[in-house]
Structures are given as C-alpha cells and as structure tokens.
Amino acid sequence: MKEKISDDQKALARYARALGHPVRVYIMELLSKQSCCYSGDLSDVLPIAKSTLSQHLTELKKAGLIQGEIEAPRIRYCVNRENWQHARELFMTFFKT
Q1: Which of 33, 50, 59, 75 is least enclosed, having the fewest CB within 10 Å?
Q2: Residue 17, CB-side half-sphere exposure with 13 Å CA sphere
Q3: How many CB atoms lie within 10 A of CB 59?
Q4: Over 26-94, what HEC string results?
Q5: HSE toward the beta carbon, residue 11, CA cutoff 13 A
Q6: Which residues touch 26 (CB under 8 Å, ≥6 apart)?
Q7: Which of helix, strand or coil describes residue 7?
Q8: How much is the pLDDT for 2?
Q9: Could you tell me the fold of the domain covering 7-96?
Q10: How far apart are CA 94 and CA 97, in angstroms?
C-alpha cells in the first residue's frame, strides 16, 4: 500500500523550498515587519544584483508567500498574510512532531 502525500505536506515542502535561501528569509523578515515594499527599496538594502533579487522575489511569489502589484514603473511587494500564516502553522506542527 502506497502512502499518500497530503496537501499540507506538499504545501510545507513548497514553503520550505522558497525559504531555502538566506536572501529569501531576509526578504520575508523585512516584508513581514511592514505593510509593503517596492522592489527598488529592496535593491537598496540588499547587496545583490537586481536580476538576482528579481529571481528571489519570483520564487517567493511562486510559493504564494508574497504578492506583487505593478505600480509603474515599480512593483510593490507585500506578504500574502493568509499563506504566511498557513506556512507558520505548518512549520509549527511539523516541528512539534
């Protein structure tokens, strides 16, 4: 009998993969302390190329941890509060076992 991988396990793996780089952890810490941030502001704080920052933001967005809105010519990023809370709950449950 094969074990079934649950939706929560898949979600936890997706969130863990997205948080698997220190720059992305830093971005999430920064964004969780404020309502939103513009990508240009992040590039002022992080000593990485804008293209690299864009890749990190894309990974976080793909995992559903952040959301972005285009406000030409910049993009405003915010934490997706619902998914961030879900990730926190999944990690807490995982580490309690």
Answers
A1: 33
A2: 12
A3: 19
A4: HHHHHHHCCCCEEHHHHHHHCCCCHHHHHHHHHHHHHCCCEEEEEECCEEEEEECHHHHHHHHHHHHHH
A5: 16
A6: 46
A7: helix
A8: 66
A9: Arc Repressor Mutant, subunit A (1.10.10)
A10: 6
Distance between CA atoms of residues 43 and 10, nearest Å: 31
Please write the tens of the pLDDT for every residue from 27-67.
Answer: 999 999 888 888 878 888 888 998 999 999 999 999 999 99
Cis upstream peptide for 73 (omega within 30°): yes
C-alpha span between 11 and 37 (Å, rounded): 25
- Taking a C-beta distance cutoff of 8 angstroms, is the pair 42, 74 a contact? no
Calculate the dihedral angle through the C-alpha atoms of 43, 49, 51, 55, rounding to the nearest 10 degrees.
-80
Q: Where are the domains of the chain?
A: 7-96
Structure tokens, 10: 């898949």
What distance in Å separates the CA atoms of residue 53 and residue 47, rounded to the nearest whole number?
Answer: 9
